[in-house]
């Protein structure tokens, strides 16, 4: 197993944002995981670590915790950051690693700030990957959620288009 990458910090004003850079095997891929699992702990789970190594096999994998999450600076509960503060932190991480343009991959609650990053800094985002396993609050109950049980070769996760159809 490859060594766990060092966690370093980017500055955004007075805040410090934790990030890791894994490999340098291709175009930049900024991965912003769910706030449930800080980047330092993702490597402790063998299945997740395997997925991260797979991402790093074709990219320069840049992983970061959002402000107030994981190893990034904490914020008081009554002073939670606005969405733009999270987006500014992502820009600070891209700047710290010298990335002019990256594919950005957001999961669950990190999907909103990465979508705002793509909308507010389109020149910095080559493409956007979203893994959001939650149903829209306003979706009618007739909308089918989830994906057919079709798997991509060599993975354990179904691949789907925005319409929910497996590819």
Automatic annotation (TrEMBL):
Q: Which superkingdom?
A: Bacteria
Q: Which InterPro entries match?
A: AB_hydrolase, AB_hydrolase_fold
Q: Where is this region: Disordered?
A: 144-167
Its name, as the record gives it, is AB hydrolase-1 domain-containing protein
């Amino acid at each position: 197993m490859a060594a766990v990458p060092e966690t370093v910090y980017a500055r955004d004003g007075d805040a410090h944002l934790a990030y890791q850079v894994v490999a340098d095997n291709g175009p930049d891929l900024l991965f912003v995981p769910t706030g449930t699992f800080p980047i330092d702990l993702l490597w402790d789970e063998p299945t997740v670590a395997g997925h991260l190594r797979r991402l790093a096999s074709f990219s320069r994998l840049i992983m970061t915790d959002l402000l107030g999450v994981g190893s990034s600076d904490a914020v008081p509960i009554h002073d939670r950051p606005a969405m733009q503060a999270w987006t500014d932190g992502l820009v600070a991480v891209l700047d710290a690693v010298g990335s002019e343009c990256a594919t950005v991959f957001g999961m669950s609650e990190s999907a909103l700030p990465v979508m705002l990053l793509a909308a507010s800094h389109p020149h910095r985002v080559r493409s956007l990957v979203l893994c959001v396993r939650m149903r829209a609050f306003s979706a009618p109950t007739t909308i089918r959620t989830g994906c057919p049980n079709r798997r991509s070769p060599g993975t354990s996760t179904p691949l789907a288009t925005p319409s929910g159809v497996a590819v």
